[in-house]
Automatic annotation (TrEMBL):
Gene3D superfamilies: 1.10.246.130, 3.60.20.40. This is Gamma-glutamyltranspeptidase. PANTHER family: GAMMA-GLUTAMYLTRANSPEPTIDASE (AFU_ORTHOLOGUE AFUA_4G13580). It comes from Mycolicibacterium agri. InterPro entries: GGT-like_enzyme (IPR052896), GGT_lsub (IPR043138), GGT_ssub_C (IPR043137), Ntn_hydrolases_N (IPR029055). It comes from the Bacteria.
């Protein structure tokens, strides 16, 4: 942790994205030294209070953080919500990932309450719905979009920390949805099948052990709250809960919210590594990842080609947060990057999709990264949409 402590104590340059995010937000600047006013790219910023918290973690581990200054600050911030016992017990756990065979390989993603099951489900549906072999085929985006809609339209009703991941990706559940992917139009999903601020890092070592890691404050600086005296920003992941009493995802003690974080690892039939990938982007994470998987495994594209290609994302009809795409029963807008093939827009519009064109290489379409293993060669590629991403080997 020494490098992180050094940057927090002695300063780090603001990237263009960070500078733009901070500028004009006085509540943010109050807790970042050097950011009291407009921030320019390259300007040195400091997190000296936070450096102290990092030192505590380096010296005392988990308990030094949760049972130390941070835990005490949280109890002061929300005395009616938190007790000392809440911070003494660890809620971290090892779980077997959710896996599925798609495009001839095995794809692995976190269990619920992650949205990773949507990536697996959409890929499985798309494969069986006849996804074309080439992204230049006008039907390519339509099949993927409809597969994602079929997979995800009921996410608000079924995803919670109590959800059974295997049941969510079972063939019995998904088979009927394959038939719902129409080549000649957009499916009406109303009532169908109903029974009643992020960072991604991928690392692969010489032994081909891969880590596909994602963390998120949710919406840039999270809740905009800071634990007093610590410099620690509090995340906004509570946005994943709802307040509907009796719903499996209702806010309650000792619960984890449904969330968007959905990194992926791909292996072959012998469980040897094929690729590690993931992205930031709220509800669009499974959408971006399934497009990358289709390009890598179905179309045979290289990581660089797959990452630089134009993308689509889906947005709810009244959603401007990127965290409520599926709150309208699958009624979504199709947003295309300007660098997608021209045929995509006309073909999708002709099938009944509501199509909107957005600038190419926009942050809204994710910051995805891929490491692909091919024999003795590792190929790592960072998304050109990110101004601060990097690919490195040693």
């Amino acid at each position: 942790m020494r490098p992180a402590i050094d940057y927090a104590q002695n300063g780090f340059p603001a990237t263009p994205f960070v500078a733009n995010t901070i500028s004009g937000r006085s509540a943010v600047g109050e807790f970042i030294e050097g950011a009291g006013g407009p921030v320019a790219a390259g300007q040195t910023l400091y997190r000296r209070q936070f450096a102290g918290i990092l030192r505590d973690i380096a010296e005392g581990g988990r308990d030094a953080f949760y049972c130390g200054a941070f835990g005490a600050a949280m109890r002061r911030l929300g005395p009616e919500l938190f007790a000392a016992e809440d911070f003494r017990k660890s809620q971290a756990s090892w779980t077997r990932p959710l896996g599925m065979e798609v495009f001839g390989q095995r794809i692995w993603t976190p269990q619920p309450p992650s949205s990773g099951y949507l990536t697996l489900s959409a890929a499985w549906i798309a494969e069986r719905a006849g996804l074309p072999a080439s992204p230049t085929d006008p039907a390519w985006p339509h099949v993927l979009i409809e597969a994602m809609r079929q997979a995800a339209f009921d996410r608000p009703e079924v995803l919670s920390d109590a959800a059974d991941g295997q049941a969510l990706i079972s063939r019995d559940r998904l088979s009927d949805r394959v038939g719902g992917v129409r080549r000649d139009g957009v499916a009406n999903l109303t009532g169908s099948y109903r029974p009643g601020g992020t960072t991604y890092v991928s690392v692969v070592d010489a032994e081909r052990t891969a880590v596909s890691l994602i963390q998120s404050n949710c919406m840039s600086f999270g809740s905009r709250l800071v634990a007093p005296g610590t410099g620690v920003w509090l995340h906004n992941r509570g946005i994943g809960f709802n307040l509907r009493q009796g719903h499996p995802n209702c806010l309650a003690p000792n619960r984890r919210p449904a969330h968007t974080l959905a990194p992926v690892i791909v292996t072959d039939q012998n469980d040897d590594l094929i690729a590690s990938l993931g992205t930031r982007g709220g509800d669009s994470q499974p959408q971006v990842v399934v497009q990358l998987l289709a390009r890598l495994l179905r179309a045979g594209e290289s990581p660089a080609t797959a990452l630089s290609a134009g993308r689509w994302i889906l947005r709810g009809k009244e959603d401007d947060t990127s965290f409520n795409t599926w709150g309208f029963g699958g009624d979504v807008r199709v947003c295309l990057e300007a660098n997608t093939p021209g045929e995509w827009s006309s073909h999708l519009g002709g099938l009944g999709h509501r199509v909107e064109i957005e600038p190419a290489f926009s942050h809204a379409f994710g910051h995805a990264h891929i490491i692909e293993a091919n024999g003795n060669v590792l190929q790592a590629c960072a998304d050109p949409r990110s101004g601060s991403a990097a690919a490195a080997g040693y």
